[in-house]
């Protein structure tokens, strides 16, 4: 579905018209993939629109920039304020928020340490990524391996990393699946093309550690926190491929995927091939918090100062 444009985009400290947010074809990012970014959801609870874990997302953005030696002229609080300003001005929510930092037009060399650092923040309507929350999805193990240590930093959310993700996703779609799961360089389960992965086996919630080329997901962290409070046993361990076939339950987490159950892996049913009780309980609690049906006891929602809401078609 085509992106539905909004009125303004935040650019290097000011709001500019959507159509003015352009870059030169010789910008470094186009040729070398030198960008870091975030994907963040703004929800619409009864108390008013609120951005989910705004501070944590922006901190990860700045951490990613630091790994790639990008000197960002704004701090975390300033960028959080910029997100709130953008969403509030455009009056569009619920929505997806995309802050991106990249190397712009200047030197043509690979390093381009002197190229200007450009920062944009965009928000636009976006619905479910992997289907309705009550649906479980069919996935496959990808033939493409996740990034190996000392190749590209898996802990940084960088644009270049997502070329790997595109291969995983396109292969899955071409073969009739909704998503692919990548293994790491040693053959252990890593993550989806854009999601972290959990399995449930014998009443334990299991997820791969960051050392398995796993992005430190904000939604992943949120589900771990909810699971601890629900007294669900948690294990962070390397996951053999076959664990996906014998698991009782499995699900993805991520900003786009939120909490998405997995029905089959390589056409083998996960458990009974339906949403399991632990997945359902975690999913229900997560949505209750972000939608304002329960108290935001973790302080995850940052309210957006608003003007009149604009019509949204999702």
UniProtKB/TrEMBL annotation:
Top EC group: transferase
Keyword Ribosomal protein listed: no
Matches recorded under InterPro entries: Aminotrans_IV, Aminotrans_IV_CS, Aminotransferase-like, B_amino_transI, BCAT-like_C, BCAT-like_N, BCAT_family, Class-IV_PLP-Dep_Aminotrnsfr
GO molecular function term, any single one: L-leucine-2-oxoglutarate transaminase activity
Highest taxon, organism lineage: Bacteria
Family per record: Belongs to the class-IV pyridoxal-phosphate-dependent aminotransferase family.
Protein name, per record: Branched-chain-amino-acid aminotransferase
Record organism: Candidatus Sulfotelmatobacter kueseliae
This protein's encoding gene: ilvE
């Amino acid at each position: 579905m085509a992106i539905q444009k909004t009125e303004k985009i935040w650019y290097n400290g000011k709001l500019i018209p959507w159509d003015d947010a352009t870059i030169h074809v010789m910008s470094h990012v186009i040729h070398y993939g030198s960008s870091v970014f975030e994907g963040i959801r703004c929800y619409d609870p009864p108390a008013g629109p609120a951005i989910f874990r705004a501070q944590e997302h922006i901190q990860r953005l700045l951490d990613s920039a630091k790994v790639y030696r990008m000197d960002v002229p704004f701090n975390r609080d300033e960028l959080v304020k910029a997100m709130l300003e953008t969403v509030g001005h455009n009056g569009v929510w619920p929505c997806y928020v995309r802050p991106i930092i990249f190397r712009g037009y200047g030197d043509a060399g690979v390093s381009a340490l002197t190229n200007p650092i450009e920062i944009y923040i965009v928000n636009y309507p976006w619905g479910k990524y992997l289907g309705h929350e009550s649906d479980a999805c069919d996935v496959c193990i990808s033939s493409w391996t996740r990034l190996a240590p000392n190749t590209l930093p898996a802990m940084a959310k960088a644009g270049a990393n997502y070329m790997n993700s595109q291969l995983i996703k396109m292969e899955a779609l071409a073969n009739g699946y909704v998503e692919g799961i990548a293994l790491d360089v040693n053959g252990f389960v890593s993550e989806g093309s854009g999601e972290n992965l959990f399995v449930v086996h014998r009443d334990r919630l299991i997820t791969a550690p960051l050392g398995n080329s796993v992005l430190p997901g904000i939604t992943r962290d949120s589900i771990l926190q909810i699971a601890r409070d629900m007294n669900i046993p948690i294990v962070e361990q390397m996951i053999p491929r076959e664990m996906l076939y014998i698991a009782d339950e499995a699900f993805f987490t991520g900003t786009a995927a939120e909490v998405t159950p997995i029905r089959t892996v390589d056409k083998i049913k996960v458990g009974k091939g339906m949403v399991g009780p632990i997945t359902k309980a975690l999913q229900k609690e997560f949505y209750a918090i972000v939608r304002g049906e329960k108290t935001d006891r973790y302080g995850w929602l940052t309210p957006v100062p608003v003007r009149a809401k604009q019509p949204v078609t999702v």
